[in-house]
Amino acid sequence: MLGALLKRVSRSFYLTIRVLPVGMREPVGLAYLLARAADTIADTPLIAPEKRMELLTSLRDQVNGLPDPEALARIKAEVASRQKDSGEKVLLESLEPALEALSQLDGADREAVRNIVATLTMGMAFDLRTFPNESSGRIGALQEFAELDRYTYLVAGCVGEFWTQMTCAHVPGAFAAPRETMLERGVGFGKALQMTNVLRDCGKDLRIGRCYLPAAMLARLGLTPPDLLAPDASQRARPLLFELAGKSLERFREAVEYTLALSRSSIRLRLACLWPVLIGLETLLLLVGNKAWLDPAKAAKVPRGKVYRIMGCSLLLVASNRLLRIWLERLIAGIESRANLAKHRD
Length: 346
Description:
By secondary structure, the chain is mainly α. Helix content is 73%, strand content 1%.
């Protein structure tokens, strides 16, 4: 049942789950489903932010082993019924079996899933506290880069830690580097992907009142968050796009080292890490070349056909550190080159 749910709510992550070693599939899949359910609660705009926070806290408490059938009933009645996506509706209506499956995991896996869901819900709560209601017509903004960096940890960097813990627990000997090194690189891996998401989705987020681009960094360009809705905003804010893309590339280098530190015999794990790195870098390449990057209608998105080609090529190269490094470094160099050329043209 959980596999069918994964397929309905995320086809891409479903493919990643299927390629994982058997022992990792259930805890990682459960963590994803529970976090996705929490995210759906946090992002349902027809419900007041205070009510979303209450339901989010309740779900977190239930993940931590405090049953609350009444809260589950409220989630079904107040949130599931409002979902246009049938997969998310079914997910919210299937929380009881998901929580039951969590209770049946072995102790270490259960604790790891509880910890990752708790951290992710902290990131969701941060959004609800920081930004105004989506229908308010106002824009809230992060203030400093440190705040953005912390946010990327809460919603993605922590996933890199969890992934590393699951790998160490279920595939001992998979890493060629010490556990602590891999935990640190895992955080960078997650932050790289989230920073790319922030830049890709910036135009859409602005229109629901959320500016993740730090106000202090915008001020250096003479911009305020509301200015980013103007027709010429993409051009005026491009220097900040390049600066944050550069910070994302620093994290992607950690993601590259994370992937290449996996044993060459751990083909499934390598693929599960390689695909998001490659797709993330391809997205960043599109972003730095996108002169209308703040227009939600022109958001950078890797075409499905390109994704399939990436996956096909990766199957041929996955066991070769040398060839993978060449591929990944060329992508990184292409991003840096495109950003530098754009800077000179600007």
